[in-house]
Amino acid sequence: MPLLDGKGERRVSLWIGNRVRTAAHWDLPQNLACVVAGRRRFTLFPIEQIRNLYFGPVDFTLSGQPISLVDFIEPDLERHPRFAEAMQHAQVAELEPGDCLYMPSLCIHHVESLDPFSAMINFWWRDAPAYTEAPIFSLLHGLLTLRDLPPRERQAWRAVFDHYLFRPDGEDPMAHIPQDAQGLFATMTPEIKRRLKATLVSHLSR
């Protein structure tokens, strides 16, 4: 793929089929979708529209990814009224053979094959460090630790997560502590990764 620099690990998928629809979903990797045969229509949404797209559960899916439960062809706006708001933020791209579409990580997309026969190649990759696990596991852990806290406590923990993880001001929250004294919050190493996993496993095994 000449559009990519050739560095780093990537996965390549070939999809061959008839006229089908893929429910709206997101993917963790970045994605370059290249149409080989037939036309495809992509309807794209920013991840901030997740609330308006009525996603199903994360553990009961056909392909491992949560999907929108809205029928994009005949949406039931009585059952899914906020879908109309989501469509105000949608972008639609119709691809023909030879066209490629770049989708960043967590770009929500619905895909329709418009012809009786279609083929597409996807190139998937991540720019995150190799040690990075899928963030969905943090979400699942949060079901045990955060979701059902009293509202005030839940908001307080949001401030803690912002400080240590999301860092809206871009500052390192541990900058005032020497690297060798930062413990599990120090720059990631294989040893710190091992200790983090051991801590989590010990907790989750109780």
Question: Oligomerization state of this entry?
Answer: single chain
Overall pLDDT level: 94
N/C terminus separation: 48 Å
Instruction: Write out the strand line-up for the largest beta sheet, numbering strands in chain order.
Output: 1-8-3-6
Strand content: 15-25%
Helicity, as a percent range: 10-25%
- Main sheet record: 4 strands, antiparallel
From the coordinates shown, what is the CATH architecture of the largest domain?
Sandwich
What fold name goes in the CATH topology slot of the largest domain? Jelly Rolls
Number of helices: 4
Q: Going by CATH, what is the homologous superfamily of the largest domain?
A: Jelly Rolls
Which structural class should the secondary elements be placed in? alpha+beta
**Overall domain count:** 2
Ranges where pLDDT stays below 50 over 5 or more residues in a row are: none
Radius of gyration: 21 Å
Q: What is the CATH class designation of the largest domain?
A: Mainly Beta
Shape: globular
Can you summarize this structure?
The chain is of the alpha+beta class and 206 residues long. It has four helices and eight strands; from the N terminus they run ββββαββββααα.
Describe the SSE topology.
Blueprint: E1 10-17, E2 21-25, E3 30-37, E4 40-45, H1 83-87, E5 91-95, E6 100-103, E7 108-113, E8 118-125, H2 136-145, H3 151-166, H4 190-204
Structure notes:
The protein has 206 residues and is α+β, with helices and mostly antiparallel strands. The chain folds into two domains: 10-125, Jelly Rolls; 136-204, no CATH class. The chain has four helices and eight strands, in the order ββββαββββααα. 15% of the residues are buried. The model has no long low-confidence stretch (mean pLDDT 94).
